[in-house]
Design a protein that fits this description.
With 274 residues, this protein is of the alpha+beta class. It contains 7 helices and 14 strands. The strands form 3 sheets. Strands 4-3-2-1-11-10-9-8-5 form a 9-stranded antiparallel sheet. A hairpin with a 2-residue loop joins β9 and β10. α4 packs across α5. The chain starts with a helix and ends with a strand.
Length: 274
């Protein structure tokens, strides 16, 4: 009798912990109310105006994806991040140059929850919610106004190709830019590599094989421009790439016209990445 009781009791305990674990996992999937996909509606430079103003304007319309432990800020993907929350009052200074304080955004509140994004013990951005669908995002000395467009996030396209590039700075951007070009219809790409450009050699040239496996229609060629590279070889590689591009155009874009007219082929735009 005691043995049966112990078995039943043990099963009950096991089922209890399994249930608690499931509930805990379900709650952790939506632990933060700010997770989701946000669109950049406007950008304001907080520091001195310089050439970065034009770059900031290019962010308008881009997306920022916030997950529980990963983010994608306008194609800048980072994983294993965490958040730190602190309550700030109206006197909290956002920008010394603009003399901007949190009073501008209090909207009758006594305090605002300011959330820091921390990657490798460094704060890379901060944000706070004006409402469930409006966010103020502080990033790279700029103030972004965001609106929520989706409760969900999808990091698959980025992480499956670019996660290693997180360690190589600009090289990550090169791969991401090639993905954007291919997915927007420009499959013929010349990846130009200046002398001693290590990021391009590692995650530009180094990722071409992976890109071709993921996008079989892509036609990418890497051209080295350094003292040891022959101009003849450079031109030959570009000509070979163009030859493949025109063969694809003949196969994909041939227009069947009546016999008395000739078919015309529209040349596809070629993009170079430096």
């Amino acid at each position: 009798m005691n043995k049966k009781f112990l078995i039943v009791f043990s099963l009950v305990i096991i089922l209890f912990f399994v249930y608690k674990s499931k509930v805990s996992n379900d709650e952790s999937n939506d632990i933060f109310n700010f997770t989701g996909t946000w669109r950049i509606d406007s950008v304001e430079q907080l520091g001195e105006k310089d050439d970065s103003d034009e770059e900031n304007n290019s962010f308008i319309g881009e997306e920022i994806k916030l997950g529980n432990n990963k983010i994608n800020i306008a194609d800048n993907y980072k994983s294993n991040i965490h958040y730190k929350l602190k309550a700030v009052e109206g006197e909290y200074i956002i920008s010394y140059e603009k003399n901007l304080t949190m009073n501008t955004f209090m909207n009758g509140r006594e305090t605002v929850d300011l959330i820091s994004i921390i990657d490798k013990n460094q704060i890379i951005g901060e944000f706070f919610l004006n409402s469930d669908t409006e966010m103020i995002f502080l990033y790279k000395s700029s103030l972004f106004k965001l609106s929520k467009i989706n409760e969900n996030t999808n990091f698959d396209d980025v992480k499956n190709t670019n996660s290693i590039g997180n360690q190589t700075g600009e090289g990550w951007f090169l791969t991401g830019e090639m993905i954007e070009l291919i997915e927007s219809g420009t499959s013929n790409i010349i990846c130009m590599q200046p002398f001693a450009c290590l990021p391009n050699h590692v995650t530009g040239k180094g990722m071409i094989k992976a890109l071709k496996e993921k996008y079989p229609e892509s036609n990418i060629v890497a051209v080295d421009y350094d003292p040891g590279a022959s101009e003849v070889n450079q031109l030959n590689r570009i000509k070979l790439m163009l030859s493949v591009a025109f063969k694809k155009l003949e196969g994909e874009m041939f227009i069947d016209l009546p016999a008395h007219k000739e078919a015309s082929i529209t040349e596809e735009t070629l993009i170079t990445i430096e």
